[in-house]
Amino acid sequence: MALRKRTKFAIASVAAVAAVLSYCLVDLYWPRHTDIRTFDPDEVARLDTAMWRSYYGRERVRLFLELGEVLRTQYRLPYLRSNVVAAKAAKAAFVFKDGKSRADYEKALPDLVSFYREIRAVSTTRFDVDRAARLELEWWIVHRERDRHDPNDLVVALAGLAEEVYQLPAESFMEHARLRAEAMAIRDSRAAAGGVSEADWSRIDELLHQSWRSLHRAVNAPQ
After folding, report:
1. Are residues 16 and 88 in the same domain?
2. Which stretches within the chain are classed as H helix?
3. In this structure, are 61 and 20 located in the same domain?
4. 66: β partners
């Protein structure tokens, strides 16, 4: 009787492990397709504001969790995959944040390429993964080195990334980019002046909502 119970337990344990492994494999590797133009712009904006606060507050875990939430709720990645991709994006963000020169900033590129490769794998809109990753890094650098750039350079860089990812003309994203750049300028100027207040963050959040609504209109407009 005891042997029979141990045998049943062993079989059940093997079955449970097999089920978990199967779930993980399906989650991580089963082909999925999603229209990245279909998202809730207000929810993306809310999470975008939260991610800015986490990034500037150096809250790595919080940023990772917020990225995972965006990927699951707005771009419909499954749970494990969303966390793997979020980890790559969060790592890239903080590698860049700790950088002091372009050579340092470039160290974030491999994780950005991995991030965009995973997005491209599920996206029904085809785009160049390496180009998207480089454009992402480039606007980060333009923003970091803003004292060396015309303010419009950041707008152009942001619109260029959207152009590649959504395969629409950059002109379609200029409003989105301008509003996003304006939100960044508020954050930067207030931080330089001593601190970003809750009123400042409220204004930033408002601009990001407007920005993501603009992008949503652009990518869903009749072509």
Report:
1. no
2. 2-29, 41-56, 60-73, 79-97, 102-105, 109-122, 129-144, 151-166, 174-192, 198-220
3. no
4. none
Quote the pLDDT of residue 135.
98
Q: What number of CA atoms fall less than 13 Å from residue 191's CA on the CB side?
A: 12
Using the structure block, give the residue that is written with the tokens 């480039």.
Answer: 138
> With bands split at pLDDT 50, 70 and 90, how would you rate the model's confidence at 2?
low
Does the CA dihedral 145-150-155-156 come out positive or negative?
A: negative
Phi-psi region of 160 (alpha: psi -120 to 50; beta: other; left: phi over 0): alpha
Q: Are residues 70 and 12 in the same domain?
A: no
- The predicted pLDDT at position 222 comes to 82
Residue 42's identity, in one-letter code, is D
Say whether both 58 and 26 belong to one domain.
no
Same domain, 83 and 10: no
- Classify the C-alpha dihedral 81-85-88-93 as positive or negative: negative
Q: Domain containing 105: what range? A: 36-220
Q: Are residues 53 and 112 in the same domain?
A: yes
- If asked whether residues 14 and 114 sit together in one domain, one would say no
Per-position DSSP letters for 39-77, written without gaps between them: --HHHHHHHHHHHHHHHHTT-HHHHHHHHHHHHHHTS--
- Do 136 and 155 fall within a single domain? yes
190 pLDDT band, cuts 50/70/90, is very high
